[in-house]
User: What shape does this take?
Amino acid sequence: KAGVTQTPRYLIKTRGQQVTLSCSPISGHRSVSWYQQTPGQGLQFLFEYFSETQRNKGNFPGRFSGRQFSNSRSEMNVSTLELGDSALYLCASSPGSLGGGHEQFFGPGTRLTVL
Amino acid sequence: AQKITQTQPGMFVQEKEAVTLDCTYDTSDQSYGLFWYKQPSSGEMIFLIYQGSYDEQNATEGRYSLNFQKARKSANLVISASQLGDSAMYFCAMRERQLDSSYKLIFGSGTRLLVRP
Assistant: This one.
C-alpha cells in the first residue's frame, strides 16, 4: 500500500505570495491532518479534514486554510505569506477522525521557505 | 502552560542498551490518547506506539514500550536494545478534546537521541 505523499517537497516563495500544498492520503483513509513544524514553535496542529469537512482546527490565523476532496486528497493554502511561515508542513492520514484515537501516518513533508 | 513536556532535549545511549525518554502531560480530560513518534533526519514522522487513557496494560510494540503512570501523568517511552538506526528526534504527543468537542494532537518539544556504537 502506498504511503502518504506530499507535493511539492520543496518550495520557495516571497512575502505576500500565496501557496498551495497537496497531500494524498493512504488509500482508504478518510482523515487528513496538517501540521506546521518550526525550530521555534515545534510541531503545531493546523487542522483536520474528515470526509470533506473540517473537523478540528488549531490556533492559526485565517490565512491558513484547507480543503478535502471526495477522493480524500487534501490541499492546504496559505495566503499573504510571511517570513514566519517558513516551515516544514507535514500531512498525516488516518482511517478515522482524530477523536477515534487512530494512528496517524505522516508524509515526508513540504519544506516551505519564504524570502 | 505546556501540555506535553519532554525535559530531555538530547540524550546519548550505547548501542544495545535500553533507554527511557521522558514525557509528562497535563489534561483535565478523562479520555485522551498518548502517542510517540520518531522523526529521523529525513523529516518523516514515524508512529511508534499508542496508549489510551483507559488502557490498563502498558502498550508495547516490538522494542518499544510505554511506561504509563496515569496518576503521575507520565508516559515514558522505553527503547530496549538500542540500534544505530534509532538515532533520531522522538516526540511525545497527546490527543486532547477541546471545549467545542473537537480534537487536537499536541506535541512535546522532542528529545534528540543519539546511539553510540
Observations:
- Chain B is about 0% helix and 50% strand.
